[in-house]
Amino acid sequence: MCLICTEPLDSLAEMVWLDCSWCDAVTAIPPEMVNLVRLNCHDCPRLASIPDTLVDLVCLYCYNCPLLASIPSTLVDLMELSCTKCLLISSIPSSLVKLVVLYCAGCPLLVSLPDTLAQLVELVCPDCPRLASIPGELVKLNMLNCSNCPRLVAIPSTLIQLGWLNCFNCPLILSIPSTLARLTYERCAGCPWLPQNAATYPNHTPSLLRLQRWFRTGKKQVFKRVIRSKAFNEFVFHPDRIGGRLVKRQMEAELGAMRPATKQRVE
Predict the structure, then answer these.
(1) pLDDT score for 75
(2) What is the reported pTM?
């Protein structure tokens, strides 16, 4: 049991720091706790919401709360937010413009990140299967972990302050921008199209770009697993493989059937 469950509200109202983590009983944070600056409420399986009255919050750690569906847009002073493994969260409010640190890993419904987080220095967003892009406006970003994001197609060239990058197992990324001159750590295994991982693949860039579009808008359920394997990639795109040429012809025919006006040869 935590303080919320055991203490009267009068004794909690003036608190500026609260830790009610790992409490199976807590279902809500009292909205009267308007003086809170830091709130730790992670691993609360029954917690379904954060009050929008906590406008003084600077740090919010609400990860591993499976019923939590949103972060209030009124928390405009928030500088640190961790909502990792909050399975129902689908967006980060664009009003959180003071955020410096954002952890939103393992959020399966998260589709995009706002381009208003210009102060962000640290972004950890791996294992977000619907996340398709990193905003180019995050120009102060120093650390980015976007591993295991199968729909992510690019690392923005505007992230010139980036010193630490983990894009492990992002199979649709074709290149690491040359503008990222400050990189001191880079993990990009599982990105089969990068030149450092397979020197012959850049020869097939037009085909890969087309496959990206097909993967996002066509029969993506067919490729969402097999496209990640190096063996499949080599089979499809290696110029010396007869099987690869046959598969490309089959893909061309299927693409042409879906979008005849944009039909092009893949080989």
Answers:
(1) 98
(2) 0.77
